[in-house]
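Quick one:
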Amino acid sequence: MFIQTESTPNPATLKFLPGRSVMEEGTADFADAESAQRSPLAKRLFAVDGVTGVFFGSDFVSVAKRDDKEWYVLKPAVLGAIMEHFTAGDPLLLADDAADAAPAGEDSEIVQTIKELLDTRVRPAVAQDGGDIVFKGFEDGVVYLHMQGACAGCPSSTATLKMGIENLLKHYIPEVAEVRAAM
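Output:
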């Protein structure tokens, strides 16, 4: 098995490409070892000293590290954990969690348009950088988005939200006045 690595705009995060599908649909974000209990791979990665975050995309795994650790030290252990997981054939997630499911209910036309623009124009670009963006809400002209994976804590994430996504949404949806980060 050959696993490629790519840098991301966030120097604390590397993107690992195992050359196969990681998530069939959606994404999974693990901010700490406790949240990783539902994923054998995330648990393995958090066992590596210095790993602070794990994110699964369609064909990649993004791993974040502490500032006091260097990638040349961590990278072999992370590669080993990913390779061990895929060669063992373990499941990525242990249970079908409803935690990441979309809230029930009918979206307004504006919210539908926001989600469509995020899915078709924003999410593919953000995935290239090892992350994802999640729509959290639209209220009083403000779109609330949550950055995940390499994009969470990235020095350029504020610029991405404000200059990139906000300008795009304002261009297509006059009702959008601002984009803000949500937790």
